[in-house]
Design brief:
With 367 residues, this protein is of the alpha/beta class. It has 15 helices and 13 strands.
């Protein structure tokens, strides 16, 4: 068995969990650790960006939030099977630390680590704990938070490290920003890893309603869900707007760097990317997010002057067009927003989190 310390990262579900997990994996590998990711089949779809030396372990999990009555009845059995498989894997190759990033695919590994009394910690990306992290918050040795303040259970202390971003984002930290002007301008529209219907409904007509002196220069990159893609493409085409419409962009850091304006949901990873790269943004938090955590995610960046928050209930085409015009027709203000966003960013979040992992491993080794 290798003497190189192993960290087991438990994450899955969406890019919001997987991207910061990837960032930690990249940092710990650079520090000489072995890294194993425990996720389920759904989370495995987001592992393409992980370093090749990361061991990927797909373990079955389940959630009560999906499926019909029969599927929900089977959830406990699926979770128990996953916990047993995770326990058996950890017995073969014992991790020095287990780090959970939330999402139901993290349940088996975190539960097995708890049963085995292994050193363990969680990282919560959002300003409100997700259900899985809320359950384990009182059962781990340390809690790291990506958004500050984060609503925590009574008696639970945490360390604010920020949300780790991938190396492809760090490589563009505080990239030079080109203010809006009378030349081609890029507008990036992203709805998180799942896309967002409201952005497909509202943003194309909002852009089309802009004054011609702005509209003639705009180039759009728009992430639209598969079921919305055709109509979004058709709208932009009819309006004579140059637009690249795709269900998922695998080069968001590049597109964000080139953008004069980003219109986005307020997922924790999106907010972190925006603040590390430093770009003006209009954020539309997902109204149905548990505990309204996307509004909590957005507050800090908005208060810092790097973004404008528009509640989903007020995000009409007219309102959005006005907000877009306000930024693109004010080069000096847009530049100030970019600078404010970059000052708010925490590009060292992955390093801080990796140090927490190493400290926890050291403390438990001598205890």
């Amino acid at each position: 068995m290798s003497k190189t310390p192993l960290v087991l990262i438990a994450a899955g579900g969406t890019g919001g969990h997987m991207f910061p997990a990837q960032a930690l994996a990249e940092t710990l590998l650079q520090r000489g650790w072995r890294v194993k990711l425990s996720t389920d089949a759904r989370g495995a779809r987001y592992t393409g960006g992980f370093p090749h030396s990361t061991q990927i372990e797909v373990i079955r999990s389940a959630t009560f939030a999906r499926g019909g009555g029969l599927a929900r009845l089977a959830v406990p059995a699926h979770i128990l099977k996953g916990v047993f498989d995770a326990w058996r894997s950890m017995r073969r190759d014992r991790p020095a630390v287990v780090v959970g990033f939330g999402g139901y695919p993290a349940i088996p590994a975190m539960a097995a680590a708890t049963l085995m009394k292994l050193p363990r910690m969680i990282h919560e990306q959002n300003g409100v704990l997700g259900r899985v992290n809320h359950f384990f918050a009182t059962r781990v040795d340390a809690v790291a938070c990506g958004t500050w303040p984060t609503d925590l259970p009574a008696g639970v202390d945490s360390i604010h490290v920020g949300n780790p971003v991938r190396q492809s984002v760090l490589d563009r930290a505080e990239s030079g920003y080109i203010s809006p002007g009378d030349y081609p301008m890029q507008v990036l529209v992203i709805g998180g890893s799942q896309g967002a219907r409201i952005l497909s409904d509202v943003i194309p007509p909002a852009i089309a309603a802009l004054p011609m002196h702005l509209l003639r220069n705009i180039r759009v990159s728009h992430q639209a869900r598969e079921e919305d893609s055709a109509r979004v493409k058709a709208f932009y085409h009819r309006a004579g707007i140059s637009a690249d419409v795709q269900p998922f962009f695998d080069d968001v850091p590049r597109r964000m760097t080139e953008a004069q304006l980003v219109i986005s949901r307020a997922g924790a990873s999106s907010v972190a990317d925006l603040s590390v790269i430093g770009r003006p943004a209009i954020l539309i938090p997902y109204a149905a997010a548990a505990g309204d955590h996307q509004t909590a995610n957005a507050r800090g960046l908005v208060a810092a002057g790097g973004a404008i928050l528009v509640p989903e209930s007020k995000a009409t085409a007219e309102v959005m067009s006005q907000q877009i015009e306000t930024i693109l027709d004010n080069p000096r203000g847009a530049m100030q927003m970019a600078r404010s966003a970059a000052k708010f960013g925490k590009p060292d979040a992955a390093d801080l989190l990796a140090t927490m992992v190493e400290q926890l491993a050291g403390e438990r080794a001598v205890s």
